[in-house]
Design a protein that fits this description.
Shape: globular
Mean pLDDT: 91
Structural class: alpha+beta
Number of strands: 11
Number of helices: 2
Strand content: 35-45%
Helix content: 10-25%
Low-confidence stretches: none
Number of domains: 1
């Protein structure tokens, strides 16, 4: 991996920020947070020096992704079961934020989606996306 990626998350108690250049380091950080952290959070990662960004929900039975190529629209959110009801919350910055259950997808997509984001341009094809 020749590019650098910034990873950032907050859970209301602390904020973390890393600059990483190895996919294995990204996977290690994500796996460790998903297993050991007690507060569900959104982890944000972006290609350093760009606005290309992927966010990943960690710490729940299902995850949520967002993707953007730039700060300008369009932006995308993961598209899960369109018949799902309710909400799920993840920490975003200093407060928990609720999201529609229709945006949740399987946790098994976390690492493959991150790997696609890091290794390929554009939206990762591992997830169905809805434009927001």
């Amino acid at each position: 991996m020749s590019k650098a990626f910034r990873i950032q998350w907050a859970d209301g108690k602390r904020n973390e920020d890393w600059l990483v250049t190895e996919i294995q380091e990204i996977e290690r950080i994500v796996s460790q947070l998903a297993k050991q952290h007690d507060a569900p959070m959104l982890l944000f990662m972006w290609e350093d020096g760009t606005a290309r960004e992927l966010s990943v929900g960690l710490g729940r039975e299902r995850t949520r992704f967002t993707y953007q190529d730039s700060r300008d629209p369009p932006h995308y959110v993961s598209a899960g079961d369109p018949n799902a009801e309710g909400e799920e919350s993840f920490w975003v910055g200093d407060e928990p934020t609720s999201f529609a259950a229709t945006e949740l997808v399987a946790n098994e997509l976390i690492i493959p989606t991150i790997r696609c984001f890091v290794e390929q341009p554009g939206r990762p094809p591992t997830v169905d996306w809805a434009q927001v």
